[in-house]
What we know:
The chain is of the alpha/beta class and 562 residues long.
Amino acid sequence: xFPDFEREVKDCLREGVEKVEENGDIPINPHDKIADISSTxxxxxxxxxxxxxxxxxEDILKHLIAIKERYYLIGRIDxxxxxxxxxxxxxxxxETLKKVLSEREEYGSxxxxxxxxxxxxxxxxxxxxxxxxxxxxxxGDSLGRILRRAGYDVEIxxxxxxxxxxxxxxxxxxxxxxxxxxxxxxxxxSKIYAGANKLLGADAFRKEEVDSLLKRFEDxxxxxxxxxxxxVSRCLEGIRSTLDGMNISVDKFVRESxxxxxxxxxxIISSLKDERYAYYEDGALMMDLGEFGFEKDFxxxxxxxxxxxxxxxxxxxxxxxxxxxxxxxxxxxxxxxxSSQLKVILKILGYKEPEIVIFEFVSLPEGSMxxxxxxxxxxxxxxxxxxxxxxxxxxxxxKDLNEEEKRKISKFISVGAVRYDIVKISPxxxxxxxxxxxxxxxxxxxxxxxxxxxxxxSILDKGGSYDEPDLDLLREEQEIELIKKISRFPLxxxxxxxGLKPNIIATYARELAEQFGQFYKDIPxxxxxxxxxxxxxxxxxxxxxxxxxxxxxxxIHAPKYM
Length: 562
């Protein structure tokens, strides 16, 4: 309902303020700390007319009050200095709850249209995904859920670097080391990768063997291709299993080799040769992007004419460009340069540019990692450790549950804790994951929000059904504040989708749970008189629906009990 209130405020201002701007832009702030919405439109009028903005605000207010009755969602309007403040009407409160209770799981859905190809994770198939990848996966999965809620047709893709040197190293190592059958397949492959790198060391002859293997693959040698394909497929089995365990799904795994074998890479190279930015250096094809502000040139091919990963990535994006309205890539901060170059070259070639969500890295208190050296914390290990700690909390709090129930609860608490603790921070800020903080029920992370949902479920189970509630009875301060927070869910979805920032939903879910906590503390539900009890049960149900919808966008389970 809040977006409807926003529209009314803008319409009211347009009607009450003549000729603010030629384009009709009406400045409003839906996150004002005093009013439900505030506006600084008086500053624009004052600048134009060379008047005091406070006097302008008072004049505008008189016009707005005269026409206010035409807008049923707007209640009080006042002016504080140069600011115009708008407050929701009583009608807005009851209409919000009616909308939530009617739309239920669909509440918060928007009417955006278009197809989006969203790429995330895309970790090399040389071992399990680790803490260095996890923020990419969680941001990407949450963003995909939000964009779908906004109305887009979203396909999630994982771009598989199946012909990189890392895969060649593993393929070379497989001939020299036995795969540890006791380990999960991707962990076993990682062990071989680390062992192969150690054996290679500075041995030039052995490195030439790896390079030769990679060259045979790119040249289309069927035996080598089969070796690489089998290796990559087995590693992806392990990676997919880990993603599934985190409630992360991928619609399509796209292998970079397909763009070499189908000729797309050669087509890109041929097109770039003819551009005025192209030149050769020691046989390598280069692109001088200096006029676009890049000091470092883009390498298209090696001296021997073979393609590089960024060139194949260009072919992948050209392919995607023809299959969607928007492309979105989730990339780490170390990809800032190459992704910016990629956007420029795609523009030169006449293709769509991808929208890039750059994230800073997540770390653990334990320190740095290296996949090459086999020193890293895998997501499997992180989840296992977090689940163990979650079990200790569940076992301490719920002695009445059997072992299976405790394990089940521990699982969804641990996954939720990891996902929430990582997604709650804006992608452009670095973060450190600390499982103790993530699992703390008092820290107001995922367990806190999940527990608010279980509390609402418990109230509804005890209170029974509510029939035709008189929602106009809900006028206590905590009731009003909770309804207003519920009304803002569609706004949070819109802002998260527009800004490609899933942390907005994480913040909203926490604030919603906090508001419900205040309501629960101050307002009796089950002991209220029948009519009021009926209305308050409806409000609790509305909260339950919206907090569940919020958690779903973050890929977090909303439990009935915990």
